[in-house]
User: Fold these one by one.
Assistant:
Number 1:
Amino acid sequence: MSKESMGFEDISDKTVEENISSQNTYKALVSCITSLPPKQFVLLSTLIGVLLIDNIDPKDQLILGKFINNIGQTIFIAAAQEQINIKKDK
């Protein structure tokens, strides 16, 4: 099966150990990034942004920027909803 036709069912074929390992790696990466001091945090995001636009034309830069922005908005919405639910439970 080609990567283009890969569906959700193909993702679930991973073993339990692979899923746990992937989750632990992801959590470690997120923890590392979120624990950075503010200046290093901003510097890292700037560096990643500059690296991502290398050799990409302006139209594709706009598309990529909007895509990444949408990911950020989704994270903001989920965090806000979680905070509201926590306040309701108190």
Number 2:
Amino acid sequence: MPKSRIAPTGGLQAKHLFAWSLVSIISNMMMIPLNALIPAFYAKNTAIDLATIGIILMAARLYDAVAAPAVGYLSDRTRGPLGRRKPWIMAGGVLATAAVYFLFNPPAAASGGYLLPVMLVFYTAYSMLAVPHSAWGSELSRAYSERSTISGVLTFAGVVGLLLFMGLPLLLSSPLLPLFPTAEITPPMLKLLGWLILALLPLCIGAAVIFAPIGAAAADAGPVTLASVVRSLRINRPFWTFASAYALTGLAYGVYYGTSYIFIDAYLGMADKFPVIYATAAIAQIVSIPFWTRLSQTHERKHIWALGIAGFGLLLTLRVFVPPGEAGFPWLLALATVASFANAASQVPQMAVLADCIDYDTLRTRANRAGSYYAIQQFVLKATLAAGGGVAFLVLSLMDFDAKAAVHSRASLNGLALVHTGAPLVLFVAAGVLLWLFPLDRKRQHIIRRRLDGRVTSSVSLPSGASPHGS
């Protein structure tokens, strides 16, 4: 077997996972501020109002409905010495350079005409990074425990990306590097963060392409066609359960992330504490990921995901009881730490559960459509994140909430609290119920893996030119 490939059921090394995970680190450094910070930043620091930002978010996601599946479909059909996924990731890195520069450097007079095209370029670049990268991960191994490890590493890398982005403002305002008076995300701060991301982009992508193995696609029966993708989706019932639960969690996260900065700024009066709160939460997730990864290797990962997401929703509602100002900061920090521990339980199993859905499809159709499936997953995630955030902004606008106002009425703050905590709770709990009922458990996945491995072994043992189905 060439050094660039690994067996689909074993032999994965730590250095392979580290190199592969670098793409996730840098792509999360790009996407996390878009979900948690950029909309509120533009509302507060540019000429664009909340309603316009909400409409642009949803319009950009409608575009992404075409971009992400197209990238996945085309990456499934790509052939070459670098495999299916690496060429797309390299091209995505180039496009991301322009997207990050303009997104993180908006002029004060920026209007919707500025933000919309920048968002379209950004989502195209992100799809070219995230969709092939996730499909690549499913091809690194099919073993149950290794697949849980890969999923855990992906979650870990994403949290590292969050920690790096949120930790940099703390460093840049600390006595070690006092470039800014506080850690608040001001226009100069955001601009510098954009430049740091641009410096890391080629380093992370280059290392992944050079040092991570291509992987081995199971039971690849030839070119993937659009018609075959549609037929595959129609008969894959486990995937529809996964996608429904994933859509509910995406909507919940969209509301939560989209209103987090506004809630911490307006409701709690802690805008300057935003980076330290999320950096602390990221550390809590990093510490907890090995625990949840190990648990996912030995227990039903669908149950771990279900309990984690419902627990996170319940803990989120406690934010409304945190006192505003300095007195409430320790309480908010403690709550963020505990909630992040629970949230990691919902993040770790995701990639492994979707990889099981892909194996189910491969067993039934004898084709590898990992890119197409991860493209749909990315579309569901990004569409629901945008829909959740966009609807939340529109609702706040209808409530006459003004993100630029220095003083807010009690009614508008209560409305903000209801949007920020109430809607996510309902959506998270509903998703948890669906995930608990997900049909592919450990026993069924083991049967699928054994049959796929037997199919590959049988194919390899055939004489040259022989057909596995006879003449």
Number 3:
Amino acid sequence: MEESILYYLTKEDENKENNMRNGININDIRNFIIILCLWFAAFASLYSDTANTIALYVVLPIAFCLCFFQQGRIAKYKYLNILIALILWILFSYIWAQYKEAAATQLKQLFGTLILAYIYTTTSQNIRLTPYLYITYIILFAGACVYAQKYILINMVSETDRLDDEKLNANTLAYFLFYATFAFFELKRFVNNGFARRFIEVCFILMIPLTFIVALLTASRQVLIIQIPLITILFYIRYIRKTKTITKIIFFIVAFTGVLLVAPYVSDIYEDSYLKTRNEIDINEDGRTLLLKNAINVGNEYFPFGVGPANYMFYSPNGLFSHNTYAELYANEGIVGLCLYLWLVILFVRRQWKRYWASHDKQYLIFFVFGIIYMADGFFYVFYPHLWLMGFFMLVASHSEVYYIEQTIKFQSK
């Protein structure tokens, strides 16, 4: 990864004059089109089936081609290479999949995942484009909220209804909330304008009430499990970590008082919600727990290679996937697929931890927190075939590598 970034930085300087035509920078035009393609794809994902089809089969491939030709060579990106290895293994496992149609459908999804991962990985080598890449996920979340308000909320008539339909899964909305929260947090560091910084800061703070609203409407427990630690830790790192002890004490007193004041209102809403009903189910009787145990049993039975791409659902008791990235990989792709995915995410987390202790740069701590929560989030849904869910990890991972090289160059130049 370091080699590819250094190559990009030097290559960009060498080609600045060559890419100028009548005062217009060809690279700038190319980058603008790539970002526009990503934003269109994010907007189109829920806008209409036709628009989404155009985005997946026309717009994103155009962005991929522009990235590939801009790169000028096949670069060595560690995270991307591991993801490619995982996808190649899944492709190979198609051979022994009993249900070929389902396997072929997932392979098509993985092709889209690979395209988006490549776009994010290569485009993020230009650090100036990184904030625009993060905005893609804000567009996704905003689009999901508009869709939910327009097509789902109006049909929710009882406390047992969930914000969920065939196009917008309740879990997907929860993950877009997670990514938008992190995106707003990161965007502030790229912006110098005072008003824009305050606006982004307010948007990040608004993620706190939105977390509880989304959790209640979707009846998704993982929203609270993921968002509360994420927002708390990020808030502490940015605003509290370097303050005086007395300031920390005052903050915690004010925060605790605020919680006590709003608790009765939140409790009343919670008591009448479907979220409360779901939380009262014994964990051993919960449908996801049963799916998790069954997926592990299927993985053990078909050890070491699994049953093939997307085939676990035909072995599950209710015809559903496991809602767990690790169990799903183990059942479908065996120990090989599981180890490749674990290598990908653990490598990211381990690098951030080592870099933080070597430099005490809080940005590595932020990346580390994201990695831990992303890994935890994998216990609630299947990430690897979903292009937007896997794409965000690749974006943050690439951002972390570019940031590391940028800081290394600054240190060496002193």
Number 4:
Amino acid sequence: RWVCLREGNGRPPFFYLHGDFHGGGVSCLEIARHLDAAQPFYTIAPPGADDDAMPLTIEGMAAAYLAGLRAVQP
């Protein structure tokens, strides 16, 4: 599940994949603050963080990330 923290103004989006299961990716807020205000910024919860089924392989995890990324940036 991708979360848009900043929509920006047409620049290519910055995608941040965090592994923070407990803090919900709070670190991405600090990173976003250091980027230009016009920079679109998206983050995604790690697989399994939203009670979704955890992919059984690294390839499955990559496919899930890629599908979500392509939904935002074809």
